[in-house]
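for the writeup, i need someone to sanity check this before i put it in the appendix. the sequnce is what the collaborator sent (i think, or maybe the updated version? ugh). structure was predicted straight from it, no edits. if anything looks off just tell me and ill rerun, i have time this weekend
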Amino acid sequence: MEQAVVRESTTRLHYESVKRAIAEMRRQMGQPLSLRSLAKIGFASPYHFTRTFRSVTGLPPLHFLSALRLDAARTLLLHTRSKVIDICYDVGYSSVGTFTRRFTGSFGVSPLQFRALAQSPRHTTRHQQSLPAAHARLADGRDFSGHVMAPSGFKGIVCVGLFSAPIPQSKPLACTIAAPNGDYHMQDVPLGKSFLFALGMELPIQARDCLCHDSVLRAGGQAIRISEDDVSGDTDLILRAPLPTDPPILLFLADLMQKTKVRQRKDNLAASISDLSGIISAQQSGNTEGAERLSKPL
């Protein structure tokens, strides 16, 4: 009993240490921050701080900081008229080229394109329909299933995706849409290690909501290992509200949802967000055909 209390106390201290460091990252977004300075805030050596930080967030401290900077840049692009070069410096980058390259690598579009999408919902649909073949599902893998649990009263879309890193970022390796409190099924999942996440969006979905999603429900982060004859890891997911220690979501949920409509044409993502909202509405009103369409994997 005493050991359990000690472990709980230690876990709580580690969590608070990481929260302090993340709060400082947010406060000093535009300033250089080293691992040593962050470890000092967390009252630990760089080595032990890195281990603690990774165990709480899933990411090393400087990787988490980089994700926060890109997330802050997205917010500034959406809600200010600041020039890209000013945003670059405001969030802690010293090179516009590096900033643009990392932003594009995470979101799939450049900062200027991102702002254009935010200002024109119609442009969002056209752009997503022209995404390259790399956004189609990967082949030569295997299938697996799991279950998604949502909080009472949640009515929306649950997007389930596999990612190459322990952060929902860039292009998913595979994804599908599930009904709240229902099963999901993924096909042609690439072999090897990946990370499972689920994101829940309330209906009705607005185009702008798919560009900034700090308030969406989340689940997962666990590693899934897929071999020719086995799937190891927990494939069940429980949606919850976001926590201060969660890594930012650095992707387009619009893209993640539209991937569920890809068929054999790998060069065209034909669905719009309104299509998916209609599918969910049909499912929730008892339309079995809509429910079947909703549960179809990528």
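The mean pLDDT is 79. Residues 2-119 form a domain with the Arc Repressor Mutant, subunit A fold (CATH 1.10.10.60).
thx in advance!!
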